[in-house]
Amino acid sequence: MNIKIDTQFHNFQGPSSNYYNAMDRFEDILKYKMNGLDIPQIETQTNENPVIFGSNDYSSNNQSPIFENDSLNTYNTELSTNNLAAASPYANVFGNSHISSFDTNDIRKKSNVTAAQIDEKLQGTPLNGLGSYFKRAEEIYGVNALILTAIAKLESGNGNSAIARNKNNLFGFGAYDRSPYESARSYATKQDSIYDVAKHLSTNYLRAGGMYFNGYSLDGVNVRYSTNKNWANSVSRIANELVN
C-alpha cells in the first residue's frame, strides 16, 4: 500500500510552537492522513452572538500561535449578562453528566468540585480567586473546569508568565513564534481570557464539525492544539494535583 504524505499540516492552530518546523512528527502526520481528517476552510465566526471572539480572531490568518511568551494587539472584552445568556446553549449541547473529578476521555463532562476548592489549590499564585470563573466557563461552554484550570496553570507558569501578568492572558492565546509577546492577545481581565479560550475549545475542538475537532478526549485535543506530544499528559497531571 502506497501512502503519500503531505508534510504540511494545513491551517494548524494551537497554542504551541510552529508545526511547519516540526517536520520530524511523521507519526502524527501519518495518523492524520490515515484518519482522513480534512480541515474545512470555514470561518470561526458564526451568526450567533459572539461572546469574546472578534474580528481580530487569530484563526483568520495563516500564522501558527504558541503559548508561553507574550502585544500591541490590545483585546479588551466585556462579558455582559446578555452575552452570557446568549452563550448558554453551548453548555446545553454537552449535557450535565458529572464525574468525580475529570474524565480525560471526554473533557466536556462537568467536574463536581466547587470554585472554593479550586481556589484552595491556587492559593499563593496570581491565579487565586479565579475559581468561580473557571466554573462559570464550564457551565457556559461545557469544558471541564479542572481541565481549563490545569491548562491555564501549565501555559502561564501558575500565572507568573509575562503574558499572564501584563496582558491578563492566562493561556498565551494568539501568540506567534516570530513575536510571541507582541502578538498575544490582551484582555481587560483574567476572566475574559478564561471565557475566550473556553469558547475556542468548545467551538473549534469539542464540537463535531468544528475546525479542529478530533474527538472529545484530552489526547484528541492535543493532536491539533499543541505540537508537544506530552501536552495532554502534563494537563492531566496538573488536573490530578488540583483534586489530590
Shape: globular
What distance lies between the first and last C-alpha atoms, to the nearest angstrom?
48 Å
Tell me the radius of gyration. 17 Å
CATH architecture of the domain at 105-242: Orthogonal Bundle
Keywords: Hydrolase
Protein name: Endo-beta-N-acetylglucosaminidase
InterPro entries: Glycosyl_Hydrolase_73, MGlyc_endo_b_GlcNAc-like_dom
GO molecular function: amidase activity
What structural keywords apply?
single chain, 244 residues, mainly alpha, Lysozyme, two-stranded antiparallel sheet, globular, MGlyc_endo_b_GlcNAc-like_dom, hydrolase, Glycosyl_Hydrolase_73, amidase activity
Mind sketching the topology for me?
Blueprint: H1 26-34, E1 65-66, H2 81-87, H3 89-94, H4 115-122, H5 131-141, H6 145-156, H7 162-167, E2 175-176, H8 180-183, H9 190-205, H10 218-225, H11 231-243
